[in-house]
Design the sequence.
């Protein structure tokens, strides 16, 4: 394993764990939707997430940031957030089609 690859994995793990912790706090009612948006902004930036080049991390980041815009069609549903959480934990394989199907 190269140093660059292990740094990428460490950065991925750090972001994923931050997103997991934030979504779990939201689901437990410890923070509201605005709190989740604030945590997303503290955990990462759009540029950092884009650099990762990972569809799951990117989708999760933007879903957390758009949560306060409900009932807009692009705002995630609670079911979508639970799906993303399962994917981040490795319990499911992420599919953009499945994630977006929660909004229909």
Sequence:
């Amino acid at each position: 394993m190269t140093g660059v690859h292990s740094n990428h994995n460490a950065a991925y793990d750090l972001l994923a764990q931050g997103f997991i912790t934030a979504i779990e706090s939201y689901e437990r009612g410890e923070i509201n939707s605005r709190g989740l948006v604030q945590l997303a902004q503290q955990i990462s930036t759009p540029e950092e997430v884009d650099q990762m080049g990972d569809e799951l991390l990117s989708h999760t980041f933007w879903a957390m940031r758009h949560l306060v815009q409900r009932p807009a069609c692009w705002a995630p549903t609670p079911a979508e957030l639970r799906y993303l959480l399962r994917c981040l934990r490795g319990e499911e394989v992420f599919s953009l089609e499945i994630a977006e199907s929660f909004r229909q």
User: Anything to note?
Assistant: The CA atoms of residues 40 and 61 lie 6 Å apart. The radius of gyration is 13 Å. The mean pLDDT is 88. The longest helix spans residues 3-27.
